[in-house]
Write a structure and sequence with these properties.
453 residues, single chain, RNA binding, five-stranded antiparallel β-sheet, alpha+beta, Nuclear Transport Factor 2, Chain: A, 28% helix, MeTrfase_RsmB-F_NOP2_dom, ten-stranded mixed β-sheet, transferase, SAM-dependent_MTases_sf
């Protein structure tokens, strides 16, 4: 790969004796990772069902594992059941280092395609509320699919600018993750198009975006809240320099030192005359770790401001929608007082601690339970993935090695003597999707856009 000359000159000056080792990393293999979805299976259970021959732990993420390039995790039924997410190992570090507590209000501000949001959702253990935002509506749709597949019941997906969100939600969130748009220098080894993007946009363009996003995030963070800033670039201007400038303007924020593990290095404030406390940030270098380049810095806001109060949102309950309630009572064990909202006939299970959503472009608010059509209720695919087998009254279970599972995921009709009506297909007791049984056949309800090819 031919690197831009201005980049190599700068890296030589920064890395000095390490530069040749860094350059040699371009000839090392690219590392692949999966992260286990602990919303659906804990790590002990995973060990008993793990279908892959060789997995090695990612040091900074206990749910993360390297897999061999010969493995095909996207072709296994567990992928479609949402038991794991495929993610570059370094990209697991921001979600691992943000100290999530179940019940938190969390904002993932630049969330697509959803790797970090799914990681946060799992750590929330189904409690609190997660807002996953991406300014691009098309990218937000991919974000939504990944959250649905992961079974993230507490997630709201939005597509807005950070300025718009800050105007609506000052002081609302306990934790905020900013995986900031950046010059992408840490991805040069993985993706040659990142080099072209760097040449077209450069560091200065990204810094303007980062500064705006950081300011808006500060507006939305509670007193005592925590903000984790990350990039996939080596640029000190976008990393220690950006945070250093932010700290000068916000004396109520302090750096929380993070523990480097597995070859991760400390921050480099001396590269750009930033505060010494930024040694507590982390740098992930491809010549020190098995992964790509990343920067991670955790900030805490001191309790100097009054927390803004938000009126709790008032929602109807599942029992208030007769068609949906009748169907779901027959098919599931969902409680009748489940908070729900109906939008144009579509019924959503919503987190009870939602922020006010008026005036916000919402892609999805909670779990799509289904749609009310002509006094009947058609169940949603997201409902199946949001709950375990024990929540459904009518299930048909296969093993992951059964050919029926692959046929189902490809959208084919199956033969099975089940009683008439809806059933949930499961693989090794993990829900996959709906079928409609009649006359010894199972009419496939698996969404066309999700099917295995």
């Amino acid at each position: 790969m031919k690197l831009p000359e201005t980049f190599t000159v700068k890296m030589k000056a920064l890395l000095k004796d390490e530069y040749e080792d860094y350059l040699a990393s371009y000839h090392l293999p690219q590392y692949q990772g999966i992260r286990i979805n602990t919303l659906k299976v804990d790590l002990e259970q995973w060990e008993t069902i793990n279908p892959f021959a060789t997995l090695k732990e990612v040091p900074w993420c206990k749910e993360g594992f390297y897999y061999d390039k010969e493995e095909k995790p996207t072709k296994h039924p567990y992928y479609y059941a949402g038991l794991y997410y495929i993610q570059e190992p370094s990209a697991m570090s921001p979600g691992a280092y943000l100290p999530i507590v179940p019940g938190d209000r969390v904002l993932d501000l630049c969330a697509a395609p959803g790797g970090k949001s799914t990681q946060i959702a799992a750590r929330m253990e189904g409690k609190g509320v997660l807002v996953s935002n991406d300014i691009s509506a098309s990218r937000a749709k991919a974000l939504l699919k990944n959250l649905e597949n992961f079974g993230a019941r507490q997630a709201i997906v939005t597509s807005e600018t950070s300025e718009k969100l800050a105007s609506k939600w000052p002081g609302y969130f306990d934790k905020i993750l900013i995986d900031a748009p950046c010059s992408g220098e840490g991805m040069f080894r993985k993706n040659e198009t990142a080099v072209k993007s760097w040449e077209n946009y450069g560091v200065d363009y990204c810094m303007r975006l980062q500064e705006t996003i950081l300011e808006d995030a500060a507006t939305m963070l509670k007193p005592d809240g925590m903000l984790l800033y990350s990039t996939c670039t080596f640029s000190p201007e976008e990393n220690e320099g950006m945070i250093g400038a932010f700290l000068k303007k916000h004396s109520d924020f302090k750096v929380v030192p993070l523990l480097p593990v597995g070859g991760i290095q400390e921050g480099k404030p001396e590269w750009i005359d930033a505060p010494a406390s930024l040694k507590g940030a982390l740098r992930l270098w491809p010549h020190h770790i098995e992964g790509e380049g990343h920067f991670v810095c955790l900030l805490k806001r001191e309790n100097k401001n009054h927390e803004l109060s938000y009126k709790p949102q008032l929602y109807k309950r599942l029992k208030d929608y007769s068609e949906a309630y009748a169907f779901l009572k027959e098919q599931t064990y969902l409680p009748e007082d489940l908070p729900v909202v109906e939008i144009k006939g579509k019924l959503y299970q919503v987190p009870s601690d939602n922020p006010p959503l008026m005036g916000i472009r919402v892609i999805r608010c909670g779990v799509l339970l289904g749609e009310i059509k002509n006094k009947r209720f058609d169940p949603g695919h997201a409902l199946v993935l949001a709950y375990g087998k024990e929540m459904f009254k009518n299930t048909i279970c296969y093993k992951s090695t059964d050919e029926e599972v692959i046929r189902y995921l490809k959208g084919e009709t199956l033969l099975h003597e089940a009683h008439k009506g809806y059933h949930v297909i499961c693989v090794d007791d993990q829900p996959l999707g709906w079928v409609k049984a009649q006359d010894g056949r199972l009419k496939n309800q698996y969404p066309a856009t999700w099917r295995m090819v």
